[in-house]
Amino acid sequence: MHPGNIPVWVAQSKSSRKRLFKSKPHVIFLDLGTTVELSKSDKSNFKAVALRDGRTAAECTLRLSKQHKCPDPKAFIEQVEEAFAF
To answer: For residues 70 and 51, what is the distance between their CA atoms, to the nearest angstrom?
Structure first.
């Protein structure tokens, strides 16, 4: 998958509060191509994204990246968790 196959849909809302998103966004996975059975870690990552669990999604991403060069994994996890918290 690539970013072009993962659009985010946000419904229009009449709310007057100023927020980045006026309603909960929906992540849509398109064009998955070949059908395969997901590994346990892939299932965990997809589930974390679907449930808006930023901490688990970030931890799974770091685990999937065998030779990641993230200079500050703790900050990465905190930032992803914060992004999912809206």
So the answer is: 24
